[in-house]
């Protein structure tokens, strides 16, 4: 049997994840008291294979029961069962925004202080996060993209399927993406902004991409960038990193950065990596 423990920050998308896992054929139980995990496994074994994929949601909603989680997981493993932890995370800014949009209060907030509740929850969940096989940051994922990530993880499998690359294009005049692991500045490339027929277009247009990429400097840079990414990514995976956020910036975030990011995304996808593109400042 395959057991997945779903946990993570409140507001990071656990409810949607449960629905997606059910669609993938998992038998899902939300907020099961941890002390019942070994007993629940015994019941699943008696189904003689009818239930062979189980996803259990465990989070701070369990209150005092949640404190028993690690003891229960040890007993579960002593029974001969293995499990993996899927940890859902998101930036504080994203979580606060989601709470304000839904007008809900954080389960650990005092006097409605959402930020304080999030910080306390991070402390309580830190050990679980360190144990996680997969850490999925949902800050930049819409529901469709989250479903696709889960499909890759639990239908297709494989080491590369547990690693996600987020490519973000941006304009330096609008500020850099603060959650980026790597930043590449492509303002040295020819700028279509100064060509009247290209100024109103973006890097999504083939004419703009041809203008940016059809020169020796761009070709050399892209080759070096691709080789560096192929060197870095396996090393990040080896060190246990689950997601890489790469920012590609130009002046306005509409022409050069978009052109380079599209070419890089296509190259990485051809090498079997999963890439999500976000053009932050294209509008």
UniProtKB/TrEMBL annotation:
Signal sequence interval, chain numbering: none
Pfam families assigned to the protein according to its UniProt record, in alphabetical order: PapZ_C, RapZ-like_N
InterPro entries found in the cross-reference section: P-loop_NTPase, RapZ-like, RapZ-like_N, RapZ_C
Start and end residues of each RapZ C-terminal domain: 164-283
Domain RapZ-like N-terminal residue range list: 1-154
Domain of life: Bacteria
NADP found in the keyword field: no
Binding-site list for GTP: 59-62
Gene3D superfamilies in the cross-refs: P-loop containing nucleotide triphosphate hydrolases
Keywords in alphabetical order: ATP-binding, GTP-binding, Nucleotide-binding
Residues at which ATP binds: 8-15
Name of the protein: RNase adapter RapZ
